[in-house]
Amino acid sequence: MKRILIAILILAMLTGCKNTEVSTEGPSETEVVSSETGTDIEKSEEDKDAIEIVVDDESEIKEKEEIIDLENKVKSPLTGMYIDKDRLNDRPIAVMLDNYYKARPQAGLSEADIVYEILAEGNITRYLAIIYTNRPETIGPVRSARPYFLDKALEYDPLYVHVGGSEQAKADIRTLKMADIDGLSSGGDIFWRKKHKPIPNNMYTSYEAIMKQSARRKYNSNGKFETLQFNEKDMQIEGKELNEINIPYRGKKYSSGFKFNEEDGLYYRYVNNKPHLDETSKVHLTAKNVIVQYAGQRVIDSAGRLEMNLIGNGKGMYITNGKAMDVTWKKPSRRDLTRFYDSQGNEISLNPGITWFQVVPSGLNIVTK
User: Fold this and answer.
1) Which of 66, 179, 239, 245 could potentially form a cystine with 325 if both were Cys, beta carbons 3.0 to 4.6 Å apart?
2) What is the pLDDT of residues 331-354, one digit of tens each?
3) Strands 179-182 and 159-162: what pairing?
4) Which architecture characterizes domain 72-369 according to CATH?
5) Which residues pair with 307 in a beta bridge?
6) What does the pLDDT read at residue 53?
7) Does residue 10 have a pLDDT over 70?
């Protein structure tokens, strides 16, 4: 770093001239230097004949700003982060992932841009992973479809990946003309079972296999979808402190949590108070944004299947950077994007990064710290 050192020598002239040594070091402890005016405020007690002015380079005064090389970069519409252009895929995939305890851990979650966790029957949750900027080599275990998961998947115009589903969900997929990739009607080169987990918790696929099946079915290669707003850079929100959150979907057996790490500004995810790791990469799953969405629900059949009210409006909570703020949500129709608003009615902007949506039954007691 460039440093400008200016030494001004004032010669005291009485009857003649006196030699004065010019310091090449910084100012002594008793010197007070102004880098704005370039003038000395107090002289050294040791040498009042010499005044030294130090003006730091501008880059030393100002905080360093991160410089992002945007050449061959594009902003991901699902994370707001700059990525290499060749990482941006043409159409999102939305994959149903099993969360039964025999299915854990899941493969591919660490490469998802967005993840939803929503209850299925028996108060056991499933995940809907939206994958857009990565190409996982292993994804699974893949499970069956439910109608209200379609309500979320439709927001991304995706290739919808699942293995079977409820009769209502299968009928809705046909009626809505979704780009359907079902493990029950695809070949063994698209879905396969692994022996390390029991049936039905062991069906896997890959990004490459999904693309192969999409080409066979002649689905559109491009998706058309709206996205949430993202800040240009990381911002703090106005809200209460929130360093930990625990969502007891089914008591201690099926609880999801996040713990904030100040060092990297991320929330680390936990299942039953244990680190939630990706099966393949072993990466500890994290989120920059966590959105809690409260929704009404009811049991609709003897199998315990649910109806989840994800269309309309309701309440929620946006969590980022160690703070949480109350929000409301609105979704006019099945295909419309769910948008979130602050207390003044303004649509919120998310911080760039991965977002986890925790869809929670209205009235469930969430524990926060």
Assistant:
1) 239
2) 999 999 999 999 999 999 999 999
3) parallel
4) 3-Layer(bba) Sandwich (3.50)
5) 298
6) 39
7) no
Q: Side chain identity at 171, as an amino acid letter?
A: A
CA dist., res. 349 & res. 367, Å (int): 25
Sign of CA dihedral 345, 362, 178, 135: positive
Q: What is the pLDDT of residues 192-216, one digit of tens each?
A: 999 999 999 999 999 999 999 999 9
DSSP 240-282: EE-SEEEEEEEEETEEEEEEEETTTTEEEEEETTEE-B-TTT-
pLDDT of residue 67: 62
CA pair distance 287, 267, nearest whole angstrom: 5
Whose structure tokens read 């999409």?
A: 214
Give the mean model confidence (pLDDT) for residues 40-46.
41
For 2, 17, 35, 57, the CA distances from 53, given in Å and listed in that order, are 15, 23, 8, 13
Query: Can you tell me the distance from the alpha carbon of 350 to that of 356, in angstroms, rounded to the nearest whole number?
Result: 12
HSE-up of 48 (CA within 13 Å, CB side)? 3
**Phi and psi torsions of 217, nearest 5°:** -80, -5
CA distance 166 to 179: 17
